[in-house]
């Protein structure tokens, strides 16, 4: 709403064409985390490229005057967008995205840009911590049912970006090429009853194996786990792909189930655990014989931080730096670019931000520098060499290694890096 | 994924046509809240009615065998759905929604039903607490930018259902008829500079008033609030509609601004406050001269509970009650309906659940009973007299009044009502 009322007022008073720069950044990391993960950049680029108003939409906005309506009918973003790569780390005040153009064309993008980056980055930031906690063990994203039906698709994409191996969300596979994986529900076991209406777990396992092959993962905790494991191996044989435990004390149960599987000769049968796992629960299972994690609710809701808290602020008007002075919400004016300075070992030391129009500052030559800000949209068109989802996933994995070691800890603390402003 | 692999296995082993009942309920309320609000029901009904698989979607699922593909090509839900009205209160184990049909037609609806109800109910449950905390003062929903771009539209709808007066999300207005409202951003003020590039707040206010009328709400905290209020009244006169404060200690500032407005003669100018308001912040401002609240992040993220934690469980197969015995996840078998028992004063005492196929149990006649479970879909078709969004909104407002008075408190405690099962 206010994007359009501001647009209308700006078209009326002649300020609509002022050359502006808006910046996406955050003032702090949620829950005293040490880093955030930029996610959603590719979705933002698509959304900006396709940002249009239909006649039907405009008909539903009777408060628009004729001039504003005409402007929106012909709307097409023609400006420049620069920013951090998708999969890049960020910290408080990192200039994640800079949108430059007329006030009119930039102001109407606030909500769509922030919605995408705030949601996707919240999920990716939580997912990256889970991946770190899992220490190389695969995590499957299975949280679609715990978030909005469309957000679920984006969540699956963001979790994969952050290092999850697959998702149970088929739409994410169709739309973004995320690998899919899945097991079965308790309903599948409950569905199978014998002629007298009594539970028949073996019939459920048998049917699943016949349909999905012996490499499938059987859910063994619908009734009694010990009996469930016995039934699973009896039906599948020792070549069974995996068993899933979705309740109880997962550490204790994983050990018991591992012992039982080994005693039965099912040495290669994997153990998958799920049940409201977050990064802390995953970390607490490090020493247990768990092969695969299934994460749901926590990852799609950002594990306690369901929004990244990114804001979209006007930082420059006709070449003049601007910033508000609201208490607790002060910010740095000027359109910026950033680099990360690293030791020769590759360990990051700090981020440095400076004017987007100037050459990189001289940091004395002791440190290596990596340019963080790259062109994303030029004159309204996405640049040619945008990273693929898999490239962004690899980029993040490499960046996490560059953090000072304490930056990967799960506990609350200061951000791992700070941002220094030069000449702003 | 697992919905379709279970379907495929069920079509293969002959269990696909078993008559099943799945139930949506929650085992607990998040954050020890005292009630939840059912939201999203109308969206679920639409989603079920329109649930289809396109040829393109099926082409992307190479793991499907021919029989399963054919089944999905012709998919159309033909069963029964009963449940609580949208805007109804719920408690742990309330049978919010019951889906009956073949295993095949019910199992594939799990994710879409849960995604909608979990997200919408999370937002509505948080929003209802904010409305209670505001004690009749209007709250505007302005959180679109802090959640997924599609979820934002549903969040605006759910917040309105819960008693918010309007939203800044225009798509929610177009799609669901939610009233819209909006103010302006700090960018609007920052955009306005004089010929020397110096801040010119008065120019911003003047342009907004010329475009939007004197009834508009001016954002006064971009630079200095005291000067901002003075500028606002100087430009608009004492007929100014409102001022918004979006930073700082809102209680102290509201008092100072009220005094200043009154001293300037702007007695009727309203004060709107925003800035990460949740139900506790809203309650803490009860005694301050605040006229309107703007709530964003907290409402769209469920104020600490971004998902309602609802599950979709198989409870009946061919007339036999089923339930799993997983530790901590036990549930009650059988397709259910529910009523709420109330004293003659209207105060609710408990919920009672019994078989969906039987007459209401005799509770002794001392209490009045209200049927909670109503038909929503019959033979695949939505029933004729579904409630409108405004009717659901009114329904919720009436139900909140029926809670025992301690049930509306914001602090952590037991659920306000419990559910008693009879004959199950």
From TrEMBL, chains A, B:
GO terms for molecular function: glycosyltransferase activity; nicotinate phosphoribosyltransferase activity. The keyword Cell membrane does not apply. Keywords: Glycosyltransferase, Ligase, Phosphoprotein, Pyridine nucleotide biosynthesis, Transferase. One of its GO terms (biological process) is NAD+ biosynthetic process via the salvage pathway. Residues 1-118 form the Nicotinate phosphoribosyltransferase N-terminal domain. One of its GO terms (cellular component) is cytosol. Its EC number is 6.3.4.21. It is an enzyme of class 6 (ligase). Residues 140-264 form the Nicotinate/nicotinamide phosphoribosyltransferase domain. InterPro entries: Aldolase_TIM, N/Namide_PRibTrfase, NAPRTase_N, Nic_PRibTrfase-Fam, Nic_PRibTrfase_pncB, Nicotinate_pribotase-like_C. Pathway: Cofactor biosynthesis; NAD(+) biosynthesis; nicotinate D-ribonucleotide from nicotinate: step 1/1. The keyword Ribonucleoprotein does not apply. It catalyses: 5-phospho-alpha-D-ribose 1-diphosphate + nicotinate + ATP + H2O = nicotinate beta-D-ribonucleotide + ADP + phosphate + diphosphate. Transiently phosphorylated on a His residue during the reaction cycle. Phosphorylation strongly increases the affinity for substrates and increases the rate of nicotinate D-ribonucleotide production. Dephosphorylation regenerates the low-affinity form of the enzyme, leading to product release. It comes from the Bacteria. Belongs to the NAPRTase family. Catalyzes the first step in the biosynthesis of NAD from nicotinic acid, the ATP-dependent synthesis of beta-nicotinate D-ribonucleotide from nicotinate and 5-phospho-D-ribose 1-phosphate. This is Nicotinate phosphoribosyltransferase.
């Amino acid at each position: 709403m206010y994007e359009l009322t501001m647009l209308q007022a700006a078209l009326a008073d002649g300020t609509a064409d002022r050359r502006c720069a808006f910046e996406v950044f955050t003032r702090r990391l949620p829950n005293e985390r040490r880093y955030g993960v930029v996610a959603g950049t590719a979705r933002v680029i698509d959304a900006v490229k396709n940002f249009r108003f239909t006649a039907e939409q405009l008909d539903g906005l009777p408060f628009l005057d004729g001039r504003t309506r005409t402007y929106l009918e012909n709307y097409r973003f023609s400006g420049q967008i620069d920013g951090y790569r998708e999969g890049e780390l960020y910290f408080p005040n990192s200039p994640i995205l800079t949108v430059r153009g007329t006030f009119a064309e930039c102001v109407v993008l606030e909500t769509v840009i922030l919605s995408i980056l705030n949601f996707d980055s919240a999920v990716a930031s939580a997912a990256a911590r889970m991946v770190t906690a899992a220490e190389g063990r695969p995590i499957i994203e299975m949280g679609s049912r715990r978030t909005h039906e469309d957000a679920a698709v984006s969540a699956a994409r963001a979790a994969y970006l952050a290092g999850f191996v697959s998702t149970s969300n088929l739409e994410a596979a169709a739309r973004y090429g995320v690998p899919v994986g899945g097991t079965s529900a308790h309903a599948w076991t409950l569905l199978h009853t014998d002629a007298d209406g009594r539970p028949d777990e073996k019939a459920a396992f048998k049917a699943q194996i016949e349909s999905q092959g012996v490499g499938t993962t059987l859910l063994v905790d619908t009734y009694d786990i010990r009996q469930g494991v016995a039934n699973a191996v009896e039906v599948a044989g020792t070549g069974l792909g995996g068993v899933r435990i979705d309740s109880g004390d997962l550490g204790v149960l994983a050990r018991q189930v591992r012992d039982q599987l080994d005693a039965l000769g099912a040495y290669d049968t994997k153990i998958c655990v799920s049940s409201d796992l977050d990064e802390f629960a995953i970390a607490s299972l490090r020493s247990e014989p768990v092969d695969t994690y299934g994460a749901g609710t926590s990852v799609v809701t950002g594990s306690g931080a369901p929004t990244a808290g990114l804001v979209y602020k006007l930082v420059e008007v006709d070449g003049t730096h601007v910033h508000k002075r609201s208490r607790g919400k002060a910010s740095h004016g000027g359109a910026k670019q950033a680099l990360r300075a690293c030791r020769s070992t590759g360990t990051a030391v700090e981020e440095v931000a400076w004017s987007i129009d100037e050459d990189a500052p001289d940091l004395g030559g002791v440190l290596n520098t990596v340019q963080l800000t790259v062109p994303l949209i030029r004159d309204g068109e996405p640049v040619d060499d945008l990273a693929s989802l898999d490239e962004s996933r690899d980029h993040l994995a490499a960046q996490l290694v560059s953090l000072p070691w304490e930056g990967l800890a799960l506990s609350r603390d200061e951000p791992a890096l700070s941002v220094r402003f030069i000449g702003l």
